[in-house]
Amino acid sequence: MRVLLFLLWTFLAFSGEIRVFAAADLQHPLSEIVRLYERRHPQDKVVLTFGSSGKGATQIRQGAPFDIYMAANMKFVEDLYKEGYVVTPPKPYAVGKLVIWVRKDSGLDPSKFPQVLLDDRVKKIAIADWKVAPYGAAAKELLERTGLWDRVKEKLVIGENISQTASFVFSGAADVGLISLSQALSKELSAKGIYWVVPKDKYTPIVQGYGITKRGSEKPEVRRFYEFILSKEAREVFKKYGFDEPY
Fold this sequence. Notes:
Blueprint: H1 2-13, E1 16-23, H2 27-40, E2 44-51, H3 53-61, E3 68-70, H4 74-83, E4 91-96, E5 98-103, H5 115-118, E6 125-128, H6 134-145, H7 149-152, E7 156-159, H8 162-171, E8 176-180, H9 181-184, H10 187-192, E9 193-197, E10 206-212, H11 220-228, H12 232-240
Parallel strand pairs: 1-2, 1-3, 6-7, 6-8
Antiparallel strand pairs: 3-10, 4-10, 5-8, 5-9
Binding site for molybdate: 53, 162
InterPro entries: AvModA-like_subst-bd, ModA, ModA/WtpA
Family: Belongs to the bacterial solute-binding protein ModA family.
């Protein structure tokens, strides 16, 4: 009986809910990673919230109840760490890639960059808000480096985050989208569109980082999931969605 009680107390002590704010480009890979984790740790429940990295940082500063913060770049995590909202030293977990995506029925060829953005058929170009979304910042940098910014800025449709940006071009509200490779490789977008991976030397590397917040620092279940993010199983999922390893 004592053994059973001990096991029950141990289960209760190490079980719980893990609340994660994650960058919008992680919607598909992180959902898969959570399923793998919960099969291994059925006593834990991971609750995911997706949005722009900047919005997540603001919410954490305002007291939002997140245990882990996963941004699409290192800077947002580093800033929260300096301010005391993230308590673990920022760690990179993946390196993202920017792509140009178009619908298959558009007749456009995304590999014909930069001409594809200047095509007369292209009336709207979707990018994420560069002030809060790292992929939006990368897209803006690409357009500026290639001398296209002033030529296409009137065509831009700005998404709140990279998921909304993808939805604009997926739905036809925009003709071309500058989105993450992880989204382009999702079942929905890969079935309906084609993409071209932007060369890495055209924008600053999108090194994505994460950390445990002050709220989650005392929870063993949070530490378990935090460590699982860098496991071999998780790395395989990130690789499946086009991410490079940060090391």
